[in-house]
Amino acid sequence: MTGDPIRDYHTWDIDQYEAEQRQPHCCKCGKAIWDDFYWDIFDAIYCEECAEDGFRKDTDNYEG
Questions:
Q1: Which domain holds residue 47?
Q2: Per the domain annotation, does 5 fall within a domain?
């Protein structure tokens, strides 16, 4: 903390941006993945929500 709230905010904002850039990003929605895991499906990275939307199927609808 510098005592200058505007400067402190800009420093914090840059730190947050850099932290986000280090995270994996979902190939479908583009969001940074902050969870403890991500989905790697054929070398494509997905967040849990996009993986479930795109790949999860109910067994009741399975037609073999």
A1: 25-64
A2: no
Examine residue 46 and state whether it is found in any structural domain, yes or no: yes
Does some domain include residue 17? no
Instruction: Provide the 3-class DSSP secondary structure of residue 55.
Output: helix
Residue 51 · residue 41 · CB < 8 Å: yes
> Measuring CA to CA, which residue among 22, 64, 30 is closest to residue 49?
30
In DSSP notation, 14-44 reads HHHHHHHHHS-B-TTT--B--SS--EEETTE
Q: Given a cut of 90, is residue 64 above it in pLDDT?
A: no
> Using one digit for the tens of pLDDT, what is the confidence trace for 7-55?
999 999 999 999 999 999 999 999 999 999 999 999 999 999 999 999 9
Q: Report the distance separating Cα 17 and Cα 27, nearest Å.
A: 19
Residue 8 located in a structural domain: no
